[in-house]
Amino acid sequence: MDSTKNDDLRPASPETPVPAGIDRRAFLMRNAAIGAAAVMTGTTWTPEARAQQAATEAGAQQVAKAAAGGDAGLKMSSALSPDLDVVKAAKGPVMTLVDEFYKVGPGPSSSHTIGPMRITYDFYQRCAKLPADQLAQATGLKVHLFGSLSATGKGHGTERAALAGLVGKEPATVDPRFLDEMIVKPDQTYPVQLGGKTLNLSLADIIYDAPKGDFPHPNTMTCQLMAGDKVLYEQEYYSVGGGFIEWKGYQPPKKGAPKYPYATMKELRQHAENNNLSVADVVMANEVAVSGKSEDQINAFLDKIANAMLATVKTGLSYKDDVLPGPIKLHSKAATVWERAMDEKYESDRAIGLVAACALAASEENARGHLVITAPTGGSAGVMPAVVYALTQSPRAVPMDKIRQGLLAGAAVGYLCKHNATLAAAEGGCQAEIGVASGMAAALIAQTQNSSPQVIENAAESAIEHHLGMTCDPVAGYVQVPCIERCAFGAVKAWTAFMIATNEIASRHRVDLDTTIKTLADTARDMNPKYKETSEAGLAQNLTLC
């Protein structure tokens, strides 16, 4: 083997010169991390380029460490700034809309791919509106990733998503093959027209900055318009979970007042019961009042989302034992689980097997970086599509109007979790992704079966309750282990929660949904930051890849 072709894969040797003023241990660790990331992503680094990047990253960490008061003061950020709208919005009624909540975009993470792509696309649009004399000085664009985006961004393809946004790609319409090509051609440049001139951008313009520090949100990033080493224009952004984004100074868009204002499940259920409405009816009335759209327009969007969910399952089932991208070399299993479920020898397991297979299929599509639907996130994108597929592709298929109602009821649960807790694994662990998705799916099933508001609440509560405390510990930073199988378990738990809720006297259910959501929020605050999408603990720490 020609060793000169593998310099980018080798860790720094003890003889690697350490730049003056840089901590030796930090430099060597960053150099080794860059080499490991190169193996994972297929990126090519010369030894000189690696050393330069390692020095930059180690220097930034050194500055952050000093500002934080040394090692004791530097930690993975998990607290939220009170200035964020996602925090302020919790003080009023729910104002989220379905076309904000259910998003189509590339996997494997709504907060690490869809959010950053929306952010950089927004930044490019801002730059295009700057004065001509300012743009005349521009030489390039830079993006700095912090916190969880820096810690696990390489495994999530954050740098590719961020670059795609800068060159004009949007999550709902980007061709996943465009993102895949960046892996094959990591040094390729992409021309961007700005102010009458062409800027050539590459993955080198997306910088993995300090993973630890005091950030407004665990998913913080800054975008810069550069004139050489001078910053012409800069904006700080936050990917707050589920593909939602904010920025420093963010003001939410103006919306109408909800017809039935609620901030808790208790208030929502009271509106439904006092007005002889279903949960879906209440949500639809608010969608119309807040958005100004007609019911037909909202239903058309819900049909689009339902069909997209079905498509992700069908596509995922079409793969037979392929190997998913990344260093784990994980084989897909959705098609195999489906085939076994259809085998007459395992007929007694068929219901669970089919739901699990559908969830695996959609989640494996997410791991491939293909288009999925945030429900509520990319990491949990296998749960709701599984139950939608199971409800519609069977001899007792429910009609589409019932699926629409189910999506509205599921959204209500997701809204409340976003409003009173979190949807971001970087903030709340996997309970905020798979747990919320399972609660949403349980509500969806119950609504399609014409269950009462109390039963819908009970089903959602049970599903979320039995995910409380679940950490986020993706092995190698990839949304594969344990994430894919968790979607299958989340879907099965949703169905179990629905069955329990319909086989008990509803009024005897002792835990209400609001209490469980508050517990989710409390647990998120108390959870060690290492277990919040950092890959610093749990399976990610204990599983050795060979």
UniProtKB/TrEMBL annotation:
Catalytic activity line of the entry: L-serine = pyruvate + NH4(+)
Q: Which residues form the Serine dehydratase-like alpha subunit domain?
A: 275-540
Q: Which cofactor does it need?
A: [4Fe-4S] cluster
To which pathway does this protein belong?
Answer: Carbohydrate biosynthesis; gluconeogenesis
Name the residues that span the membrane.
none
Q: What is its EC number?
A: 4.3.1.17
Single GO MF annotation: L-serine ammonia-lyase activity
Keyword Metal-binding appears in the UniProt entry? yes
Domain of life here? Answer: Bacteria
Q: Which InterPro entries match?
A: ASB_dom_sf (IPR029009), Fe-S_L-Ser (IPR051318), Fe-S_L-Ser_mono (IPR004644), Ser_deHydtase-like_asu (IPR005130), Ser_deHydtase_bsu (IPR005131), TAT_signal (IPR006311)
Question: Which keywords does UniProt give here?
Answer: 4Fe-4S, Gluconeogenesis, Iron, Iron-sulfur, Lyase, Metal-binding
Give start and end of each Serine dehydratase beta chain domain.
100-248
A Pfam family of this chain: SDH_beta
**Where in this protein does the record put region Disordered?**
1-20
Bias kind Basic and acidic residues: ranges: 1-10
Q: Return the similarity comment.
A: Belongs to the iron-sulfur dependent L-serine dehydratase family.
Q: What is this protein called?
A: L-serine ammonia-lyase
